[in-house]
Amino acid sequence: MPPPVKPIPPKQIRAIRLGLGCTQSEFALLLNVPAITAISWENGTRKPSGAALRLLAVARQHPEALHAA
Predict the structure, then answer these.
(1) Which of 22, 34, 47, 55 has its CB 3.0 to 4.6 Å from that of 26, i.e. a possible disulfide?
(2) 16 with 56: CB under 8 angstroms?
(3) Please, what is the angle between helix 10-20 and helix 24-31, to 10°?
(4) How does residue 68 score in pLDDT terms, banded at 50, 70 and 90?
C-alpha cells in the first residue's frame, strides 16, 4: 500500500496544472471536479482531501496518466 498523501499547498496545485498545460477550467474537467473547486484549491480557500489528493499526486508524478484517462 502506498503511504498517505500529504497535503498539497496551493502553489504546488497551480504548478501541477501548469505542468499539464491546462487552464483552470480544463484542469477541473480532467479531475472531474467543479471549476470553482479547482480554483479554490489554487487560491487556498479550500484544501483537497481524500481521493482528490491522491489524484493530484498522480498528476504531479505521472501527468500523462490524466491525459490518457
Answers:
(1) 22
(2) yes
(3) 90
(4) confident
pTM of the model: 0.91
DSSP codes of every residue in 1-33: -PPPPPP--HHHHHHHHHHHT--HHHHHHHHTS
Q: Are 55 and 2 in contact (CB under 8 A)?
A: no
> CA dihedral defined by 15, 21, 27, 30, rounded to 10 degrees?
-120
Residue 9's contacts (CB-CB under 8 Å, 6 or more residues apart) are 44
The answer to whether 66 touches 58, Cβ cutoff 8 Å, is yes
Q: How many CB atoms are closer than 10 A to CB 45?
A: 10
